[in-house]
Recover the amino acids of this structure.
């Protein structure tokens, strides 16, 4: 329904975290994750318009994504032509996919007073409403918009005589765009290791928009090969986000391997860093 969006290419700076310090985990530390593991999401305000003299549509959207990947938004569907009305819109959903190929799975709905042009019979006032489920994509190299495609159902209901009549039209092929935000994110940890090598503590994953999610951390430190294994579980009961970390010496103690596997804001990724011990 809408014309194809224009993308603005962003140059991605590869920013790898430094290798974690050797020894048992203790105290506060921050790790920035960037490059192909940046987290991008639906964020910001946008307006797009398309159509002709018969029907012209402008979609206004304002989206926000929280630290767990939940998406909310507001806006309007503004119709002019044989259907006229400025209909308030809501948007809700969840980010998914991978850091390289983020997906926003969202539902849109709108409703409000509208007028249907019946030609010689004149205008007919009623209520127009619509709803749809869309999948929004923004693969590497990430652009300034997510392109959201799916099905949309549009209905118009009005009283004619003593009865209310409702007509609907819909199907696939609908497209709109929602502004994108994102960038490197930070994993901040506060850990302690007891004499038996048991690691406990907490962590916070903070997105570029400052949205964050808190995790509880448990794990084990093995001094024999200077190995730390950590598991991060979200403190939000309904969240499916999680992280794991394995930091150890390999190749007979000549290389330190730091492997972070994550699901943050609904998006999965893996970052491996190799360095000196």
């Amino acid at each position: 329904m809408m014309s194809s969006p224009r993308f603005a290419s962003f140059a991605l700076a590869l920013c790898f975290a430094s290798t974690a310090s050797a020894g048992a985990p203790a105290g506060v530390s921050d790790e920035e994750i960037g490059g192909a593991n940046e987290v991008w999401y639906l964020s910001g305000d946008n307006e797009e318009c398309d159509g002709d003299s018969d029907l012209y549509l402008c979609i206004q959207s304002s989206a926000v994504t929280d630290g767990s990947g939940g998406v909310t938004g507001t806006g309007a569907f503004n119709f002019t032509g044989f259907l006229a009305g400025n209909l308030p819109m809501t948007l809700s959903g969840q980010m998914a996919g991978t850091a390289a190929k983020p997906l926003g799975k969202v539902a849109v709905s709108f409703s409000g007073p509208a007028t249907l042009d019946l030609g010689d019979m004149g205008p007919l006032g009623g209520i127009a409403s619509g709803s749809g489920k869309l999948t929004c994509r923004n693969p590497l190299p990430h652009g300034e918009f997510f392109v959201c495609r799916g099905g949309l159902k549009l209905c118009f209901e009005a009283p004619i005589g003593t009865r209310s009549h409702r007509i609907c039209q819909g199907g696939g092929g609908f497209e709109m765009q929602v502004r994108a935000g994102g960038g490197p994110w930070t994993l901040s940890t506060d850990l302690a290791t007891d004499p038996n090598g048991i690691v406990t503590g907490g962590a916070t994953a903070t997105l570029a928009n400052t949205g964050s999610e808190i995790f509880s951390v448990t794990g084990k430190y093995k001094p024999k090969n200077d190995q730390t294994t950590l598991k991060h579980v979200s403190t939000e009961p309904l969240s499916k986000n999680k992280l794991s970390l394995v930091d150890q010496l390999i190749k007979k103690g000549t290389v330190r391997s730091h492997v972070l596997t994550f699901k943050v804001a609904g998006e999965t990724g893996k970052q491996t860093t190799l360095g000196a011990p």
